[in-house]
Amino acid sequence: MATLVIGIGNRHRRDDGVGVVVTSFLSDLDGPGLRIISTDSADVGLVDRWSADDTVFVVDAASGDDPPGTIHRFDATAASLPAQMRGSPSTHVLGLGEAIALARVLNRLPRQLIVYAIVGGDFGYGGGLTTAVQDAAAEVARRIRCEAAARLRESMKQQREED
Amino acid sequence: MSGRTIKVDYLSRVEGEGSLFVRIKDEQVVDAQFKIFEPPRFFEAFLRGRHFTEAPDITARICGICPVAYQMSAVHAMEDACGVKVEGPLRELRRLLYCGEWIESHVLHISMLHAPDFLGYPDAIRMAADHPEAVQRALTLKKIGNEIVTVLGGREIHPINVKVGGFHRAPRARELAPLSERLKWGLDAALETVRWTAALEIPDFSGDYEFVALRHSDEYPFNEGKLVSDRGLDIPSREYDHHFVEEHVERTHALHSIRMGGGAYMVGPLARYALNFDRLSPVAQEAARAAGLGPICRNPFRSIIVRAVETVYACDEALRIIGDYEPPPSPAIAVPPRAGTGYACTEAPRGMLYHRYRIDGSGIIRDAKIVPPTAQNQKQIEDDLRRLVQGRLELPQDQLTRQCEQAIRNYDPCISCATHFLRLTIERL
After folding, report:
1. How far apart are CA B317 and CA B62, in angstroms?
2. How far apart are the C-alpha atoms of B386 and B383, rounded to whole Å?
3. B95–A contact, CB cutoff 8 A
């Protein structure tokens, strides 16, 4: 059983890179029991990133009517992502929603799959996040630290009980 | 006079964006246009003034599906310009890298993009619900292709380890060894994929195509060979411009390629297979025969089977290369620049890819020409659609539309190499 944090995004398209920025905030956690993965797209290979008993956090940018920096949290193991998150923003790769849908159909979801979607304000060319999204990235990193630590404690407790 | 119009706003399961328009008048197809309206990307323009060593990394960015093809055509063309030939283990590593890309690309197209057409599903996700084993097999097989590209290229998309003269770093034998176990599974999975595709219901359709592909003296072509066709073409890559011409067609931003003094021609798996069946490894030949393919296949809908056969070959060839691998003494050989023009064709998964560069004595690129396979197939795609629709006018509109989309996907169009979004309109007047 492991915990994975997967950050998705393109750091050269401003706020699109927020998922990767979050994983950079968490790089100190990278180790045998907690893996940090950065990727520029959520293609079909996402299904093979995790195992059935893993806990997975995925962080990606989102667009929408909410103010930039708004944080949405979804438990994708419990239900499909909202309809507006299921399509791919690109004609070149599957989107996160499609990759998760494929995992669900193939019965390849991990034990728990939490998706953090951070609404961006600027997806233009260039590096760096807008201020509100930068703050949201730090907040999501903090939340994942807390959640991952809680899951680690829970897992250790389970292990002790099994022993 | 009778008429009706069919519109498909989005053709999914192709890489990139474009559109298609078919007009039928008095039960005759009078127009078939494959429109590519991607904005100009200026790759050939911004290569000018850059150093010749930058071409592989710049051109790799043309495509996220077949970056290896762009890198291979670029390095071979630059080495041709500089009078250098890469041999031995470095040449073998280039073939291995190409194996990885073929596996990635072919498997993605076969199982995720094209198979839903044959089985009547709108997408791979809904197909996976009824065919989970086939989709899972494809995902694992694709991952093996990704792993080859990662080990050799540094990462699975837009690899960064390729350079003119070889590689920035050559892998140790022990880094390649784990791939062998994976590839043994992959070979079996590819053989199963051939059987799976051979069982699909294939539309009855064929064409009198001129097949164009590389042909090498003793191997199935990736990086090298003469450019041949089944109508007598037999030339080195450097004579490409004497036999092929690009035409601007108003409806498309990608130039149409035709044979000089001739018409459309086909590049890609059917062409490679027809011109090189005898160069396939025995296991791939046997798989093709068992699937009911003769040495030449002229039904483009059967390209899904040919891609599976080529995936078998790529796994088999990768196993051979890894088994024989002796690390090179140096990861690259020196390629001092000299003024001249270099030419190269290599075989991208979806067909032959031509690069030509003129560089000066200090290695600065003065001129570049890149002809991607999808641009070369454009005219053939239009011809296929014209004949397909003409022969199936009695079909209900939705069925005819689906077959048109399926026919376009026969070419695994990498539209983003030259295109954007595909919109299909069939207009009956």
Report:
1. 27
2. 5
3. no
Is the CB of A92 less than 8 angstroms away from the CB of B128? no
- What is the value of pTM for the model shown? 0.90
Does A105 touch chain B if contact means CB atoms closer than 8 Å?
yes
Q: What is the pLDDT of residues B184-229, one digit of tens each?
A: 999 999 999 999 999 999 999 999 999 999 999 999 999 999 999 9
A160 touches chain B (CB under 8 A): no
Q: Is the pLDDT of residue B398 over 90?
A: no
CB A18 within 8 A of CB A10: no
Residues of A with Cβ-Cβ distance to B16 under 8 angstroms = 91-92
Instruction: Say if residue B417's pLDDT is above 80.
Output: no
State pLDDT tens for residues B45-62. Answer: 889 999 999 999 999 988
Task: Quote ipTM for the complex.
Answer: 0.81
**Cα–Cα–Cα angle for B19, B405, B8, rounded to 5 degrees:** 55
Tokens of A78: 């419990």
Q: Using a CB cutoff of 8 Å and minimum separation of 24, what contacts does A132-136 make?
A: A132/A67, A132/A68, A132/A69, A133/A15, A133/A18, A133/A61, A133/A68, A133/A69, A134/A21, A135/A69, A136/A18, A136/A69, A136/A70, A136/A71
